[in-house]
Specification:
The protein is of the alpha+beta class. The chain contains four helices and ten strands; from the N terminus they run H-H-E-H-E-H-E-E-E-E-E-E-E-E. The chain has one domain: Lipocalin. It is about 20% helix and about 40% strand. Strands 1, 2, 3, 4, 5, 6, 7, 8, 9 and 10 form a ten-stranded antiparallel sheet that branches. The longest helix has 17 residues. The protein is globular, with a radius of gyration of 15 Å. The two termini are about 20 Å apart. Pfam families: DUF4334, GXWXG. This is GXWXG domain-containing protein.
Length: about 180
């Protein structure tokens, strides 16, 4: 199934698979850059289908920040951020890190001791699956870059939004790749 299968996605029908391939190629080019222009990521975001809560819940995702110059990129690197675990829609470990032994474990020190939950939230005019932190005024929003043969998203483009998350007018952008 293609990126255009979710409501709000511009691609549909026979052209959807081509749009998904083009989106994946554009994301690959973006990921290869040392410094990523945020307007390029933002433009890609606007072409992608919105994610659905049920497509994300029950999955663990490996994260990669996109270095647009946002300070969160360096902070997550220092934390050894690994990704996110969406056990179910109402139980999310928003920050998984690699510990000194190389194991992946939740780290609530940066989240005020809380987790998060998945909700549908409108961002940039479209309702999309979004992760709402329990104890922080922060919401991460997700769109689908590509899917597997069963139509499950395999790569998500994400943006962090909320009080204190915008630096010099820019959001923090990141990518999640399904790990399970």
């Amino acid at each position: 199934m293609s990126a255009g299968r979710a409501a709000g996605g511009p691609a549909s029908g026979a052209g959807a698979a081509g749009a998904e391939t083009a989106a994946a190629a554009e994301l690959a080019e973006i990921r290869a850059l040392d410094t990523v222009p945020s307007d390029r990521v933002s433009a890609l975001w606007d072409t992608l289908a919105t994610a659905r809560v049920e497509d994300i819940a029950g999955s663990r995702w490996r994260g990669t920040g996109l270095d647009t110059g946002h300070p969160m990129f360096g902070m997550l690197g220092k934390m050894r951020w690994w990704g996110k675990d969406f056990t179910d829609a109402r139980k999310v470990d928003p920050i998984l890190v690699t510990d000194d032994s190389g194991n992946v474990a939740p780290d609530t020190s940066a989240t005020g001791g809380g987790g998060a939950a998945l909700w549908e939230v409108v961002f940039r005019g479209r309702a999309t699956a979004s992760m709402v932190y329990d104890r922080l005024p922060v919401i991460d929003h997700f769109v689908v870059v590509d899917t597997d043969a069963q139509g499950r998203p395999t790569t998500l483009l994400a943006v962090m939004n909320g009080r204190g998350t915008i630096s010099e007018g820019e959001h923090f952008w990141f990518v999640l790749d399904r790990d399970d």
